[in-house]
Amino acid sequence: MSDKLNQAITTIKAGNKQTGKQLLIEILKTEPLNENAWLWMTQVVNKRDEKPSAWNGC
Fold first, then answer.
1. Dist. CA 37–CA 32, nearest whole Å
2. Does a structural domain hold residue 47?
3. pLDDT tens readout for residues 5-48
4. What was the pLDDT predicted at 1?
5. DSSP string spanning the chain?
6. CA–CA separation, 58 and 43 (whole Å)
7. In a domain, 25, yes or no
8. DSSP secondary structure string, 22-38?
9. Among residues 5, 17, 20, 22, which is most buried (max CB within 10 A)?
């Protein structure tokens, strides 16, 4: 697991989902097949309508 992904997970677990989400987006822009990043992205996107737009942005 990358340092940035570990940072994103730690940030999310600490309750800062917005910052964690931004880190995940950065990861997914360079590693679009990173399954762990996608898994954690599901934890920070909380509206059903927001999920497709989050996926399209990466």
1. 9
2. yes
3. 999 999 999 999 999 999 999 999 999 999 999 999 999 987 66
4. 77
5. --HHHHHHHHHHHTT-HHHHHHHHHHHHHH-TT-HHHHHHHHHH--STTHHHHHHHT-
6. 16
7. yes
8. HHHHHHHHH-TT-HHHH
9. 20
Position 55 scores a pLDDT of 59
**Residue 54 scores a pLDDT above 70:** no
| Cα–Cα dist 13/36, whole Å | 15
State how many domains the chain has.
1
32 to 11, 19, 37: CA distances (angstroms): 20, 19, 9
Q: Is residue 36 part of a domain?
A: yes
| 38 token code pair | 């996608």
Scan for tokens 């999920």, then name that residue: 51
Is 57 part of a structural domain of the chain?
A: no
Which structural domain, as residue segments, surrounds residue 31? 3-52
Closest C-alpha to 28, from 41, 45, 15: 41
